[in-house]
Specification:
Number of helices: 1
Structural class: mainly beta
Shape: elongated
Oligomer: single chain
Amino acid sequence: MKTAYIYYHHCILSMLFLFSFSIKTEALNYNITFTGNQPLSSVEVQNLTKGTKITVPSGDVLVLVDVLSGVNQPVGTENDIAIYPNPMQEKATVSFFAPKTGTVQLNVFGVDGRNVTSVNSPLLAGYNSFQLSLAPGAYILKVNGDGYSYAQRVISKGSGIEKPFLSFISHQKATNSQPNKSKSNVTSMQYSAGDQILYRGISGNNSTVVTDKLTESKTINFNFVECKDADDNHYSVVTIGTQTWMVENLKTTKYRNGESIPSPAGPWNQLTTGAQTAYDNNAANA
């Protein structure tokens, strides 16, 4: 009876381990691009769930990353780096674009953050390929060059590997028909499934807010509408259904016809004309 109980206990533990491992290997990478009915100056991105904020410059791709091991890393787009096959058996080919000639550091991390194998190699600008061999498990491959960096998840299902290794295979020069990756910039931000994301697109003086919970890579389109008062204060807007609303409180001191809005001459509940004041009658809140 005791033997049966121990066997049952080990089965439960094994199932829990496999379940937790499968969760860890389902990391998310979402590529977010931005467009608008006016040229974008930048996009302010807030992860409302985590309380973090970054600014994405005009033309950049935002990559929302759920890191497997907690290793904080920048991530390239899917066209910058490729690992095939992935999942791999015992060996895979790693190919990535180096926008300039220089020394490149490749590191492979386990799910516990341990550095499994690495190589430091001088590489020519263009597409460079390495052979990768790993024991069974889930990993993060990280590439760091001069002014660029990529990362990709790797799953190995092979066996019989005594020692993980990375070795250089080949180099291919970029041609005019191939994209110039040095002009492709990526901004990364940590994200977990279910996080609420707020995007504030900025075009000159105009700004528009969009909120989202992501389930896939997508393009966020901003519909910019000029919203300003008689004092030339500009306000962010948000579209809810078919209506466009101001995101901020009105802070004008003038009516639309340019006339000044007076300060209250008495208690608010006794006024018979319009009036304006700063919150709590404190000019610092204006």
